[in-house]
Amino acid sequence: MGPPGAGKGTHADRLAEQAAVPAISTGDIFRAQVAAGTDLGRRAQQYLDSGAYVPDDVTIAMVRERLAEDDARSGFLLDGYPRTLEQAAVLDELLTAQERRLDAVVVLRVDQEVLVRRLLRRAEIEHRSDDTEDVIRRRLKVYADHTVPLIELYGDRGLVHEVDGDGEVAEVRERVLQVAYRLTLAERPIPGA
Ligand code: ADP
């Protein structure tokens, strides 16, 4: 978890690779659906463009389907889900039904002004429709209002691991991987190998 621009996608991919599980990014799935012009993409586009969350029923149905795929059977890393209490409740249900549980919630912490700067820089490179200053501020507010409460929820369960997300990508990556090593969710690379 982490606010827009915190580096969720960047670190999720590496962490998932190290833990040998798929990284499932709801934002990436939505963008791919928009690009492919599917029904789901058409339904999601207006929300993505304005920086609002896609309605829970749409997001939840999509995640249910994705988690039922074969590659998620031995584990998965979620990037950008859950973002609302309702989404978290459904995730609990899904996991309980399969007698599985969350191992950890990694929260990337980054200062708001650093985030805005990063996202504006990304806008120049990637041209994402939601990386304009107005929409960025909206996304940060939506995150604070709807998603920050989940940190407390998972914190009460002892699952939260906060990582300082400020610094070079390689530095932050190392901090994220240290959490995974500590919890033995990922194997430590053999030195020199
Ligand atoms: P960021 O975290 O930088 O906003 P993402 O790629 O994770 O980037 O998400 C982009 C957009 O996709 C969000 O602003 C939202 O519209 C939609 N989205 C992604 N995940 C969810 C979710 N779990 N619930 C609702 N909307 C979502």
UniProtKB/TrEMBL annotation:
* Chain positions recorded as AMP binding sites: 26, 31, 52-54, 80-83, 87, 128, 139
Q: Where in the cell is it found?
A: Cytoplasm
According to its UniProt record, in which pathway does this protein act?
Answer: Purine metabolism; AMP biosynthesis via salvage pathway; AMP from ADP: step 1/1
InterPro entries from the xrefs?
Adenylat/UMP-CMP_kin (IPR000850), Adenylat_kinase_CS (IPR033690), P-loop_NTPase (IPR027417)
Q: Quick one: where's region NMP?
A: 25-54
Reaction(s) catalysed (UniProt annotation) = AMP + ATP = 2 ADP
Q: Which GO terms describe its molecular function?
A: AMP kinase activity; ATP binding
Q: What is its EC number?
A: 2.7.4.3
- KW Endoplasmic reticulum (keyword) present: no
Chief localization class? cytoplasm
Can you supply one Gene Ontology CC term for this chain's record? Answer: cytoplasm
- Show the SUPFAM superfamilies listed in the entry: P-loop containing nucleoside triphosphate hydrolases
Keywords tagged on the record: ATP-binding, Cytoplasm, Kinase, Nucleotide biosynthesis, Nucleotide-binding, Transferase
Instruction: Spell out the Gene3D superfamilies in the cross-references.
Output: P-loop containing nucleotide triphosphate hydrolases
Q: Which GO terms describe its biological process?
A: AMP salvage
Tree of life domain: Bacteria
UniProt-listed CDD domains: ADK
Residues binding ATP:
5-10, 122, 167
Q: Which family is this protein grouped under?
A: Belongs to the adenylate kinase family.
Instruction: State the protein's purpose.
Output: Catalyzes the reversible transfer of the terminal phosphate group between ATP and AMP. Plays an important role in cellular energy homeostasis and in adenine nucleotide metabolism.
What's the domain remark here?
Answer: Consists of three domains, a large central CORE domain and two small peripheral domains, NMPbind and LID, which undergo movements during catalysis. The LID domain closes over the site of phosphoryl transfer upon ATP binding. Assembling and dissambling the active center during each catalytic cycle provides an effective means to prevent ATP hydrolysis.
Quaternary arrangement and interactors, per the entry? Monomer.
User: What's this protein's name?
Assistant: Adenylate kinase
Which organism was this protein described from? Kribbella pittospori
